[in-house]
Automatic annotation (TrEMBL):
Listed name of the protein: Uncharacterized protein
Organism annotation: Nocardioides marmoriginsengisoli
Amino acid sequence: MSKYVIYLTTEASIAIEVEADSLEEAQDAAFDELPSGVCAQCSGWGSAWSLDLGDFEVDESHHSVDGEWVEVKKA
């Protein structure tokens, strides 16, 4: 019988609260606060599976400022 490796994907998201003077500075600060990965158990270490979160990108469609939701409308 053959062994297969099946790749499954999903979307992961994270919300990070930072203080900054502008949206651009806030986005940069959020990247500085990102966790470097997941713990060994959550990553699947020693299991028949592994988990990789990949690279995060800024979701530019919305954010919040001082508790107020901001939805960015594209022209």
